[in-house]
Structures are given as C-alpha cells and as structure tokens.
Amino acid sequence: MRINAYAKINIGLDVIGCRPDGYHEVRMIMQSIGLHDVLYVERTDTPGVRIATERDDLPAGEDNLIYKAAKLIMDEYDLPGGIDVRLDKNIPVAAGLAGGSTDAAATIIAVNELYGLGLSREELMNMAVRIGADVPFCIIGGCAIAEGIGEVLTPVDSKLNCRVLLAKPADSVSTRYVYEHLDSACICHPDTDAIAEGLREGDIEKVARNMGNVLENVTAPLVPAIGRIEDILEDCDGCVRTMMSGSGSTVFGLFYPEAPEEAIKTAYERVRESGYAAELYITGLYNGKETSWMN
After folding, report:
1. Mind telling me the catalytic residues?
2. Residue 69 has pLDDT above 50, yes or no
3. How many other C-beta atoms lie within 10 A of the C-beta of residue 222?
4. What are phi and psi of 28, to 5 degrees?
C-alpha cells in the first residue's frame, strides 16, 4: 500500500493552562498542507516491524513513531506476521510540522487496511492519541480546531485555498523545553474563533488579523533566524501573514490566493539568498484536494 502522510501548520496556537498530569491545555487550529512524506507499507509473513529510509538522521528502530504505531495496533489486535515500511521522507524533521506524527497516523491507517480490521475513524483516533497528541489530527487531516492536549478535534469546513512558503532554519528546539519555559502572563492570545470564521468564509485577511502562536515567544529568541525570515517575508509582495508553526522552528508565509506565482518564487529566492533557512518549500493548504502547487 502506498500512502501519503501530509504535514500540518498551526494557523493559530494558544495555550490555555497546565494540567495536573503535566501536559498543557491547548486551543489551536491545525491545517494540513500539501508537503508530504510517502510510505510504502507491505504486510509480511515474517513477524516484526522493519523500516527502511535513506535518511541517516532518522531512527529506523523502536524510537521511530512508525515503529511505535505499527507495534501498538499489531499488539492490540494480536495480528499475525509483520510489516515492512519504506519511507520517502520529505517533511523537515523537528520542525513543528508533525512529520513524525503524520507518519505514525499513516501507518495506523495502512495496517488497518492491510489486515482488514475495519476500524472506524474514531477507533483509529483513539489509538493514535496513545502515540502522540498530534497523531489523531493526522488521521483525519484537513482543518480542525484542536483542544485538550490536541486530541479533541472539531473539523472546520475551510474555504481558504492559498499558497504557502515554508522556511526551516537549521536550528531546532525541543518541544518539551518550549512548553516548560512558556510564561502565560507575557503572551498575546490569538482569536481562535475568529480564525475559524475566516477559514469558513475563505477570508484570508480575517484569518491573518487574528493569527498567533504563543510558543513563538519562547522559540524565537532561541532561534534568531525565525524573526529574520519573518521580516523578509513580511516585506514580500503577496504575503499576507507569516508565523512560526507549532513549537518551531519552521516559519510559514501565507500568500493571497490571487498573488501571481512569480511573487512567491521571488519570496523563495529572497529567503534562500539570506541563508537563514536550511530547507525551503512552496506548497499549499490541503483539504483533501490536490492543486497545481502541491509538492
């Protein structure tokens, strides 16, 4: 089975408080984008989970979320045999784009199909949260308000369709570190409901006015390239808003739907020439339909 595993950005990310179990209560808007990994998953008679990838910076054993997801569902249902997974990795690692979570979600979906388990989407999501807070969203994809630790999802019927430029600096920051050092008294909260309204209306300016990511207050001072990339993008024609995704360090720029293709290509070149980004991509929002700028 060949399955695409789509990255996500956070169009809004708010932290409501800290839970007794140490996790943080969040309220955020998660949005799939066209940039994706590709997994080739094969059911085998040989027990175990085997992962092959050409990326030397990725674990291929028990520390990989693909392995954890496959083992969880196979142990849960006492499945015979095993699976082989070949991963074509395109999503930057440790970037705030749910690269590991989306691979885990794709694995759960693939094992469900290959073994004919017939599990519902809700059952898959309940299993997915045991791997990580972002994994349930990656099961459904599209656009959703995420609450709780990120597992309580309310789909948003987004009408927004626009290009997105992604710029990942070389430096990354631990998600745990970012949450542990968040000072809730010193942050400006995004208006999540207004963002959702703008998405439903396809009003990119309303979305842009109300966007925000409280975690950027922690990550940006540690990774100066974040602010410098944002400064470049804000000065580019056609870019309506720029912000960090997740706990970072990837910066994304949203471009007006009517912006000419040349505008985003020019922005791409300006960021590339600055040297602040180690990885750069042009893609688009993904709500279940491929467009000409998906890559």
Report:
1. 8, 134
2. yes
3. 15
4. -145, 165
What would the pLDDT profile of 77-115 be if each residue is shown by its tens digit?
999 999 999 999 999 998 999 999 999 999 999 999 999
